[in-house]
Amino acid sequence: MKWYVSRQCYWGVEEDEANMVEIAQGGLDYANPDMLVTKYSGEGEEYTDPREAVKAAIEIADQWRKDAPELTIGIGHGCTGGMTMPFESDESEDLIKWANETWEKLPKCDRCGEVLPEEHFINYDTDEKFCREYCAEQSYIAEEEEFEDA
Asked: DSSP string covering the chain, please?
């Protein structure tokens, strides 16, 4: 799972809803097409941790508000499904809560606890899943040592 953070200037919505820091589930390919040129640190990046994406979005919105105090700037998250779909703004506390809940639900590596990428390693004997080859190897080594000690 990936989240893409960008600044957007939506068309076809009310003026006070047009400027948004968007957290798009699915990555760059699922961001809305009204994206502005990257200007701030963390913008235009994909995140595998929704908590990091929310933190970056809040910081970007704060910087954008300082640079353009005349604008109403929101922060929203969602999934476009590859379509155009403006997001609604959320409060920072609600975004943080959403990110924490989402993080808890993500499938994690059985060895190190990192989020599993789309392409990951599986031990079909134990159904364990690993984020990278190193974790799979370390699990195999531990399994072999347990077998030898028995």
From this structure: --EEEEEEE-SSS-GGGSEEEEEEET-GGGS-S-BPPP-STTTTEEESSHHHHHHHHHHHHHHHHHH-TTS-EEEEEE--TTS--PPPP--HHHHHHHHHHHHHHS-B-TTT-PBPPSS-EEETTTTEEESSHHHHHHHHHHHHHHHHH-
